[in-house]
Amino acid sequence: MFSFVDIRLALLLGATVLLAQGQGEDDRTGSSCTLDGQVYNDRDVWKPEPCQICVCDSGTVMCDEVICEDTSECSNPVIPHDECCPVCPDDGRINLEGL
């Protein structure tokens, strides 16, 4: 049968485990990021603007400008809605390059 000391020790151990779990949850929420009032989780990736991409890295927001591929060989490049980079529209020709 348990003694009074054993019960106190079990309760103390249980409280320690619960406290450690609670601190672990706080650590995870501490790594979230906030940008323009929007909260992002650690390692979330988003595009606040068409030509910008951001990532939440351990509580720090890091953003870079999107680098577009060269479309200088395209006769009539277009930029799709909500996109940053121009693309060559499909002109119906079949590209045999690489075959």
From TrEMBL:
Keyword set includes Ribonucleoprotein: no
Cellular component per GO, a single term: extracellular space
InterPro entries: Chordin-like_regulators (IPR052278), VWF_dom (IPR001007)
Alphabetical keyword list: Signal
Residues annotated as domain VWFC: 31-89
Domain of life: Eukaryota
One Gene Ontology molecular-function label: BMP binding
Signal peptide extent: 1-22
GO biological process, alphabetically ordered: dorsal/ventral pattern formation; negative regulation of BMP signaling pathway
UniProt keyword Signal, yes or no: yes
PANTHER family noted in UniProt: CHORDIN
Name this protein carries in UniProt: VWFC domain-containing protein
Species of the source: Danionella cerebrum
